[in-house]
Specification:
Elements: E1 4-7, H1 12-23, E2 29-32, H2 40-50, H3 77-86, E3 95-98, E4 101-104, E5 123-124, E6 130-132
Parallel strand pairs: 1-2
Antiparallel strand pairs: 1-3, 3-4, 5-6
Length: about 140
């Protein structure tokens, strides 16, 4: 089974999402996109699979979003992709690709909707929020 997560180890949401994937019994392909950014073509594939445009995948917090004036409607989708490739931190995370779909998993429990296998054990997020009970069911 092929699952890919575009992951940032410094992000709690991304870490929680990765842990839920693993809790389903699958070891995903982990792409640390800040170290190995996707190509423009790959980013376009992910956006197409999500049914969204680049603006919806832009991250504002902790990025050069404001200084680059990316809220300005003057930027085309192609230009926004170029900014994301030049500054991968602008790509919101985590993006997860599974046989059931591709999604930006914010909040992290959104990954449960696209995992082919059920959770194998209880899961609690890093902040203490219970997400899955001991029967593997969403709470």
């Amino acid at each position: 089974m092929s699952i890919t997560i575009f992951h940032n180890t410094a992000c709690g949401t991304s870490r929680n999402t990765l842990a839920m994937i693993r809790n389903s019994g699958v070891e995903p392909t982990v792409v640390e996109y800040l170290k190995t950014p996707p190509t423009k073509a790959r980013l376009q594939e992910l956006l197409a699979a999500m049914g969204t445009g680049p603006r919806e995948l832009l991250r504002e917090k902790g990025t050069p979003f404001a200084e680059l004036d990316l809220a300005n409607a003057k930027w085309t989708d192609d230009e926004l992709l170029d900014f994301m490739l030049a500054h991968p931190i602008l790509i919101n995370r985590p993006v997860v690709e599974t046989p059931l779909g591709t999604r930006l998993c914010r909040p992290s429990e959104l990954v449960l909707d696209i995992l082919p296998q059920a959770q194998q054990a209880a899961f609690t997020k890093e902040d203490g929020e219970a997400v899955v009970n001991d029967k593997g069911q969403r709470v």
